[in-house]
Amino acid sequence: MLTVRTLDALRAVLAGFRAQGARVALVPTMGALHAGHMALIDAARGAGVRVVASIFVNPRQFGPGEDLARYPRREAEDAAMLEAAGCDLLWAPSVEIMYPGGFATGVTVGGGLTNVLDGAARPGHFDGVATVVAKLFAQVRPDVAYFGEKDWQQLAVVRRMAVDLNLGVEVSGVPTVREADGLALSSRNGYLNADERGRAVALPRALEAAARAIGDGGDAAAALGEARRALERAGFVVDYVKLVDAGMLGEPAAGRPRRLLAAARIGGTRLIDNLPVG
Ligand code: PAF
Predict the structure, then answer these.
(1) 51 in Cβ contact with 86 (< 8 Å)
(2) pLDDT at position 190, please?
(3) What is the pLDDT of residues 48-107, one digit of tens each?
(4) Neighbour count for residue 121 (Cβ, 10 Å)
(5) Which of 56, 172, 231, 269 is deepest in the core (most CB within 10 A)?
(6) Centroid of ligand 1 to alpha carbon of 1 (angstroms)
(7) CB of 58 closer than 6 A to ligand 1?
């Protein structure tokens, strides 16, 4: 696996892939890789496909007081994992290359996709995500890009942006990878101490119970209230537990896919998770 850090080097390697007639798949990441990211690499691999992973801890998607400074950075370990998983190229730009002096452009996705849920709790977060993903798409020009379903709202925002801006990239979602007890894998799980880690399992359990109850025709408001109380009993401070339209993230409408999403803080760590509702 090659690692490149400049746009010229990236373009040269990509031109080589294209000259071989390969399709290019992109797996954007912020590093601190785990089995969830490896599932994205696995999904991307295929005959005639060159897999490019990016590692860039994007300052524009962290709000003031968020964990930008302590976000785990371990590129050497990440590169070894990517190579073992069959990734062909690692794109690892610096902040100066991604956002050179004078950088003045941002991408904002509207349509009610970014001012709800995590967008309400983290103002500007999805502008930062959309801007860096648009840049990664412009730099790599992938045929297809893979994102984890764990960040369901991010996936919806990126899908909308790719369609709206005719970016010519297929955005593919990959199911969440979970620990044996059900906790969704996340680079932020490493912030949890042993006690918090033990209690964190309440998040997937509360979502599973609510998704089952609602899917079985139970009262949604009651199920969401019970999920919230279960999280609070486990020591979480709940940000939201919501049932939304799976695509546009607004009020669920009859006959359309629904998704249950939650965000809650345990100790100093904010966790998110989501499940489909039948
Ligand atoms: O999901 C992430 O790791 C990030 O939000 C992404 C998509 C790499 C953009 O920085």
Answers:
(1) yes
(2) 96
(3) 999 999 999 999 999 999 999 999 999 999 999 999 999 999 999 999 999 999 999 999
(4) 15
(5) 231
(6) 21
(7) yes
CB-based burial label for 19 (10 Å; 0-12, 13-18, 19+)? exposed
- Is ligand 1 within 6 A of the CB of residue 78? no
Task: Please provide the CATH number assigned to the domain covering 187-277.
Answer: 3.30.1300.10
> What is the distance in angstroms between the CA of the first residue and the CA of the last residue of the chain?
41
Which sequence positions are flagged as catalytic?
37
CATH homologous superfamily for the domain 2-174:
HUPs (3.40.50.620)
Ligand 1 in contact with 30 (CB < 6 A)?
Answer: yes
C-alpha of residue 129 to centroid of ligand 1, in Å? 6
Q: What are phi and psi of 27, to 5 degrees?
A: -120, 100
In the chain, ranges of CATH 3.30.1300.10 domains: 187-277
Ligand 1 and 173: CB distance under 6 A: no
Question: What span, in angstroms and rounded, lies between the C-alpha atoms of 193 and 176?
Answer: 22
Distance (angstroms) between ligand 1 centre and the Cα of 29 equals: 5
Instruction: Give the residue range(s) of CATH 3.40.50.620 domains in the chain.
Output: 2-174
- In sequence order, the 6+-apart residues with CB closer than 8 A to the CB of 69 are none
